[in-house]
Amino acid sequence: MASGHARLRHHRVAFGLALRLGRHGRVEGWDPGRVTILPIRVLGDPILRTPADPVTVFDDRLRRLVDDMIETMYAAPGVGLAAPQVGVGLRLFVFDTDWQPNRPDRHEDDADADDQPRRRQPRVVANPVLELGPGEQTDQEGCLSVPGYHYATTRAASAIVRGVDAHGEPVEHSGTGLLARCLQHESDHLAGTLYLDRLTGLTRRSAARALRDPTLPAPGQPGAQAWAGSGQSGDDGDGFLAALRRRR
């Protein structure tokens, strides 16, 4: 997903190891001594529809999880990733909307722009509180948990998120365009909501037809793009149509 129609014509970036939570909200189930690229949960996994719990323990294990999520986000590639997408039911997400993995951050008619991607500047928010600004924006949106698909999605034109970082220190992020979209997209994940739930009218019906098959390949796998255009049908109760029914 990208902000601006000119950049959208060139690339689309998706946002937004099954770990478990122990007592007192501690993260368990992986080695905190090294960075790990985590498997991303896809449409049909119950954790994507389960509201996340607040982060209550800010320790080295949480910070290692944050490091793993950041590396997983870049490897996917994406510009945002929420903890439930990697199997952790915590109110936590990472993002970097300044990073452009597929093309440099330039307008299509800026012929003299440098062809190097921007430097990584990952950010983390735990226990976010989202505040929406006036106005709306409609742009293409994708999700690492729904690989291979992008749909026009209406969001608030601006947004502010207040929360804490991995050390429990207060943070605040605000913006318009892609940043506002990302903050809303990742906050939705923490409430058990997918961007697909925001679709309306013909776009919603188009997504329902395209996503009838509940079996999704993992993001980045060769089958993801082929499956995305296959037009397979059938819904066994875990696909998009069933998901929509659960949200009504």
Report a brief summary of the structure.
The chain has six helices and nine strands.
Describe it.
A hairpin with a 2-residue loop joins strand 6 (136-143) and strand 7. The strands form three sheets. Strands 3-4-5-8-9 form a five-stranded antiparallel beta sheet. It has a two-stranded antiparallel sheet with strand order 1-2. Strands 6-7 form a two-stranded antiparallel sheet. It has one domain (5-196): Alpha-Beta Complex (Peptide Deformylase), CATH 3.90.45.10. The chain has helices at residues 5-8, 60-75, 177-190, 201-210, 223-228, 240-247, and strands at residues 20-21, 27-28, 80-82, 92-95, 123-132, 136-143, 146-156, 158-164, 170-176. It has six helices and nine strands; from the N terminus they run H-E-E-H-E-E-E-E-E-E-E-H-H-H-H. The chain is an alpha+beta fold and 248 residues long. Helices cover 23% and strands 22% of the residues.
Spatial gap, N to C terminus: 26 Å
Segments where pLDDT lies below 50 for 5+ residues?
1-11, 17-32, 104-113, 214-248
Rg from alpha-carbon coordinates: 17 Å
Overall mean pLDDT stands at 76
The CATH class is identified as Alpha Beta
Q: Which strand-content bin applies to the residues?
A: 15-25%
Summed up, the domain count is 1
The CATH superfamily is known as Peptide deformylase
Helix content: 10-25%
Strand order of the largest sheet: 3-4-5-8-9
How many DSSP helices? Answer: 6
Main sheet record: 5 strands, antiparallel
CATH topology, by name, is Peptide Deformylase
SSE pattern: HEEHEEEEEEEHHHH
Oligomerization state of this entry? Answer: single chain
Shape: globular
Q: Care to count the β-strands?
A: 9
Q: Which structural category do the helix and sheet elements fall into?
A: alpha+beta
CATH architecture label: Alpha-Beta Complex
